[in-house]
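Recall the central idea of this unit: under ordinary conditions, the amino acid sequence of a chain determines the structure it adopts. In this exercise we apply that idea directly, starting from the sequence alone.
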Amino acid sequence: MPLVIGTRGSALALAQAERVRHLLGEAGLESELRLIATVGDTVTGVPLHEIGGQGVFVRALDDALLCGECDCAVHSMKDIPAARPPGVTTAAVLRRDSPADFLATGIEAPRVIGSSSTRRRAQLLRHDPGCDVRALRGNVDTRLRRLAEGEYEGILLAEAGLERLGLEVEGRRLPPEEFVPSTNQGTIAVVSRDEPVLVAALEKVLNDPASRRDTMIERAVMEELGGGCFTPIGCWCRSGHLIAEVLSLDGDRWVRREADVPGPDEARAFGRTLRDDAAELIREAYERLGLTNGG
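Accordingly, the structure predicted from this sequence is:
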């Protein structure tokens, strides 16, 4: 009986799920895809923080796992919230693709740039306070179409998403050392029911230990910071070297830290220090977005 892989229906989600299906097939494990609709896909006209944050892309797939509708689910790992329901676990982390952001534009110095990410907006404004960052959500095709129609002079996307879709887009990669990515950006995770035999099979075939170590360090920092997608936070670990920063919503102030971090315990200590140093920025972001609790 084939494993059932749950996935969202966007072109990017399907490309990621097909990668997992291919890897399972190479190991002799038969699988099939099942499409699951999520609130994040159907409600695209408002910022993510107004409909519950990144977790809106994950909840429906968690429910499908728990009710037996699918055996595992494929996610962009950055979409998976810290708080997870009992009975589901991250069984595998695939080898990481590019963590960087990509500025899609045909202009040398675009002024009107599309992005609904508070992090990307703050980092753009830090780099160029005069740019006009306007809200933009939707799948990759929708965003590129709106760019082509002239609504924006440039848009920000994850470089990994473009690569997974095989798209060659005019523009440039933003250096992750300067435009620090969101936690786990560029990483595909496979979530399953917390059943030892199932988890072991998926881990054996799919898991990349180095990518899992770096991404779990990032998640440990994010869990200590709180913030979620509400506060502009960048967090990137490569081979144990960690860069993390918290910015004001307008990008005019920030707190940044770097360190070599061997594991999650040290990452949590790093995160607590950064949280304390950036407490005012986190509180301010929540207040300005009309939220009640900064962490």
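Residues 209-225 form the longest helix (17 residues).
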